[in-house]
Design goal:
The chain is of the alpha+beta class and 511 residues long. It is built from 16 helices and 18 strands. The N terminus is likely disordered. Keywords: Aminoacyl-tRNA synthetase, ATP-binding, Cytoplasm, Ligase, Magnesium, Metal-binding, Nucleotide-binding, Protein biosynthesis.
């Protein structure tokens, strides 16, 4: 079975019948056996432990970008890459070698340079998908293609299964299930990985410029807290105790602030045993940060700077280009609107902290908003109604300020508006990107809030918090006034790239 022009579709891409894949694998396994038999140091396996590499493909492409068609450099280089295109024309074979970053260079294997035996071995042994090392002069072909005129070559590793068709788009399901193939086949997949790395580096640089320290807090916790979410439960054999995968690092980061780390942040994984959709994943990367002697206004300013600097790091400006080609402006000063005022304006009736739950229940029934009775508080109705009336209309980045008290047990009460807390949610393109607080630092009030949460838990609210005595003991040693924020890294990538959450995660959880 020969492969001469391009990669063929793989089993994972769903384009080849199982028997075709099986046949190709059998042919490739036979070639591996031949490699094994021909290696002098066969004890080391069918492939060399290392191959010569003097330059990356990207370096050569940069260095010889202006090379004229047909020109020779007189420079010998050794490069390695994956064969993604192959064409045999008798006395001359052509192959495109692709590096991990997507850069390609042409390898030209000629009878005149390598001899008949080596040329025939290339034809017999090299398949699409193989990793190959080539050494030779750097030239430009007559068509202007940067090339290596090969004098020596070796198979560094053989692909036993065929690649997906590099000229046919993989389905989203295939991309997330076989991300390794997606990275080979699609520039955007590689670009997203690079963008994520740039975003994380930018966040750390911005925090460093503001004097923040990065720390790590426990993933396994004896009690879940720091957010309203359903946790994953596991069991420790060593401690013979049930533990929780953390839903948020908040309560430990606040302990750090109590201990004197006045500006602290963490970028790490959170786990929530909830639904999965285009904006939610059970496992996700989270940024949380706390700044002593600040409040929710100061932390909003910092959050805007963090996001805008991340956009610049990826796109070169605060105007980003999404995967569909649309441009989105993350620049300028972002609007700050009141949750209650915006809900009143959108619903056409006055809704305030003192609005009764009966009025809210009636409005919810009128517009088809359902709130389960076990979580049916004033605040829950207000937030669900706000999402119904307002959320989808927010395109520009917008801080939605001042939330109901009873849904925000870790937040300080508003300094001038009774019944609300100093909390904001940042919405971009209609989805929540980040949240920020003036943190509740009074342990007496915090205990009262925890007790109220425990009552909700007793009524069947799986997301309600429990009384955390260790955290309360830390607060009782004195926590300064603090502004805090949390932001999903995956969602930040969504805002910058326009992709769904499963595309921004390198290896997302799938069934």
């Amino acid at each position: 079975m020969s492969e001469t022009t391009s990669a063929v579709s793989s089993e994972q891409a769903g384009d080849l019948a199982a028997e075709d894949v099986h046949e190709q694998k059998a042919v490739r396994l036979a070639k591996r056996e031949r490699l094994l038999a021909e290696r002098a140091d066969a004890a080391g396996g069918a492939y060399p432990v290392a191959v010569p590499v003097t330059d990356t493909i990207a370096q050569l492409r940069t260095r010889y970008a202006e090379l004229e068609p047909g020109a020779e450099t007189g420079v010998t280089a050794s490069v390695a890459g994956r064969v993604v295109f192959s064409r045999n024309t008798g006395k001359l074979c052509f192959a495109s070698l692709q590096a991990g970053d997507g850069n390609r260079i042409q390898a030209m294997v000629s009878l005149a340079e390598v001899g008949e035996e080596s040329l025939q071995a290339w034809k017999d042994l090299v398949d699409l998908g193989d990793h190959v090392s080539v050494t030779g002069q750097v030239i430009s072909s007559r068509r202007g293609e940067l090339s290596i005129m090969v004098t020596d070559w070796a198979i560094a590793s053989k692909a036993l299964l065929p690649l997906p068709n590099l000229y046919t788009e993989l389905s989203e399901e295939s991309r997330v299930r076989s991300r390794f193939l997606d990275l080979i086949a699609r520039d955007q997949a590689r670009d997203t990985v690079i963008a994520r790395a740039k975003v994380n580096a930018s966040l750390r640089q911005t925090f460093a410029a503001h004097g923040f320290l990065e720390v790590e807090t426990p993933m396994l916790q004896v009690q879940h807290g720091g957010a309203a979410a359903r946790p994953f439960v596991t069991h420790s054999n060593a401690f013979d105790a049930d533990l929780y995968l953390r839903i948020a690092p908040e309560l430990f980061l606040k302990r750090a602030v109590v201990g004197g780390i006045d500006r602290v942040f963490e970028i790490n994984r959170n786990f929530r045993n909830e639904g999965a959709d285009s904006t939610h994943s059970p496992e996700f990367a989270m940024l949380e940060a706390y700044q002593a002697y600040s409040d929710y206004n100061g932390i909003a300013d910092l959050t805007q700077e963090l996001i805008q600097q991340a956009a610049v790091a990826v796109a070169g400006s605060t105007t980003v280009t999404w995967a569909d080609g649309a441009e989105f402006d993350l620049g300028g000063e972002w609007d700050r609107i009141s949750m209650y005022d915006s809900l009143s304006a959108a619903s056409g009736r006055i809704i305030a902290p003192e609005t009764s739950i009966d009025e809210l229940r009636a409005l919810a029934a009128e517009v088809g908003v359902e709130v389960p009775e076990k979580v049916a508080t004033h605040g829950k109705y207000v937030e669900e109604l706000w999402e119904h009336f307002v959320k989808d209309g927010l395109e520009r980045p917008t801080f939605v300020m001042d939330f109901p008290l009873d849904t925000s047990p870790l937040v300080r009460e508003h300094r001038s508006i009774p019944g609300v807390v100093e909390k904001w949610d940042l919405y971009v393109r209609g989805f929540e990107l980040a949240t920020g607080y003036s943190e509740l630092v009074d342990p007496v009030i915090q205990r009262e809030r925890f007790v109220e949460q425990a009552k909700l838990a007793a009524r069947g609210d799986d997301e309600a918090m429990r009384v955390d005595e260790e955290f309360l003991r830390a607060l009782e040693h004195g926590m300064p006034p603090t502004g805090g924020m949390g932001m999903g890294i995956d969602r930040l990538l969504m805002a910058i790239t326009g992709l769904g959450i499963r595309e921004t995660i390198l290896f997302p959880l799938v069934k």
